Amino acid sequence: MISNPEQDKTSISKTLTACLSGLAVVISLVALLFTGLQWRASHDMLLLSMKPSVDFEIADDPDDLPVGIDIQNSGPGPAVIKSITYYVDKKVVGEVSKLVDFENLENVPTYDFDNGDTLAVGEHHWLLSYKSKPQGRDDQKKFDGFVDLIDHHLAAEVEFCPVLPGDCFTKCSTKGWCK
Fold first, then answer.
1. For the stretch 123-140, what's the b/e string if a residue is b when 16 or more beta carbons lie within 10 angstroms of its beta carbon?
2. Burial of 52: CB neighbours in 10 Å, binned 0-12, 13-18, 19+
3. From the first residue on, what is the mean pLDDT of each consecutive set of 10 residues in the chain (179 residues)?
4. How far apart are CA 71 and CA 77, in angstroms?
C-alpha cells in the first residue's frame, strides 16, 4: 500500500489541531480554577478585615468611678450581639434581669442587648455600673457588696458575630469562669 503525502499532511494537521484545542481547554480550566481560588482568598481576607474584637473591662476600684463591667468593640468591624450571659461563682445566672433579681441589684443601672443588636467599632456600654459615690450607710453597704460581686464573683460572657456571614465567637470577662 502506497501512502498519499497529501492525506498524511491532512491527517497530521487534524491531529495537531485536535491536540492544540484540547490543550487550550485544559489551560482555560486551569485559569478558571486559579481565578476561583483567588476570589476565595480575597473573600476570606474581607471577612478577616471585618472581624469584630469584643472585650470586657472590669472596673473594681471603689475610688475610681465608675465601678462595673464595660463591654467594648475594638475590632475593625461591627459586632452583632447574639447573647450576654452572666455567671456568679462560675454558675449560670442568665440574662441581666435574672442577675438583678438573683443578686438584689435593683438600684444598679444596667444596659441590656437584645439578640441582633449591633456594637459598632469603638462603641462601649457599661453593662452594670455605679457611676456616682454612694450617699449614706445603706448605699455604702450596697456599693461595697457590688464591688465585691464585680471583683470576686461575677463574670459575663458575650456571643457575637461579624456583620458579614461567618463564624460567631464567644468571650468571657474572666477567663475560666464561663461554661
1. ebbbbbbbeeebeeeeee
2. buried
3. 68 85 89 83 65 94 94 93 96 93 87 95 95 90 93 96 88 93
4. 15
Beta strands in 44-123 (DSSP E): 54-59, 67-73, 79-88, 91-94, 118-119
Total Cβ atoms within 10 A of residue 93: 19
Asked whether 130 and 65 are in contact (CB, 8 A), the reply is yes
Which amino acid type is present at position 93? V
Question: Cα-flanking dihedrals φ and ψ of residue 132, to 5°?
Answer: -135, 155
Give the side-chain half-sphere CA count within 13 A for 163: 13
The model's pTM is 0.73
Task: Give domain limits for the chain.
Answer: 1-49, 54-172
DSSP secondary structure string, 148-171? Answer: HIIIIIEEEEEEEEESSS---EEE
